[in-house]
């Protein structure tokens, strides 16, 4: 499920970036800038969850293993 959510976030960020470019070309700079900032924030958020840490795992894998350990402890 997490893979689907990350994929949708990345696709939405690409669509926002394309939309920002189109609006910028039409002269609507304020909305284009806001859309570009939102696209950047979305890509940065996806990167935080997907870029490997020191040990080679991703934060998503660390969170999943922590949840599994917590459920096993109950």
Write the layout of secondary structure elements.
Layout: H1 2-26, H2 29-50, H3 59-73
Helix pairs in contact: 1-2
Could you characterize the architecture of this molecule?
The chain has 74 residues and is mainly alpha-helical. It has one domain. The chain has helices at 2-26, 29-50, 59-73. Helix 1 runs antiparallel to helix 2. It is elongated, with a radius of gyration of 17 Å. The two termini are 24 Å apart.
How many helices does DSSP assign?
3
Oligomer description: single chain
Compute the number of structural domains: 1
Question: How would the global form be characterised?
Answer: elongated
Q: What integer is the average pLDDT?
A: 89
> Would you count the extended β strands for me?
0
| Helix vs. strand class | mainly alpha
**Distance from first to last alpha carbon:** 24 Å
- Share in β-strands: under 5%
**What is the CA-atom radius of gyration, in angstroms?**
17 Å
- Uncertain ranges: none
Kindly state the percentage of residues in helix.
Answer: over 70%
H/E element string? Answer: HHH
Q: How would you sum up the major sheet?
A: none
Features:
74 residues, mainly alpha
Task: Summarize the entry for a quick read.
This protein is about 85% helix and about 0% strand. The chain is mainly alpha-helical. The chain is elongated, with a radius of gyration of 17 Å.
């Amino acid at each position: 499920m997490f893979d689907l959510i990350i994929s949708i976030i990345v696709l939405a960020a690409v669509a926002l970036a394309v939309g920002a470019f189109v609006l910028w070309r039409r002269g609507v700079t304020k909305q284009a800038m806001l859309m570009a900032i939102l696209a950047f924030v979305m890509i940065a958020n996806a990167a935080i969850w997907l870029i490997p840490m020191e040990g080679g795992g991703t934060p998503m894998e660390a969170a999943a293993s922590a949840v599994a350990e917590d459920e096993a402890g109950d």
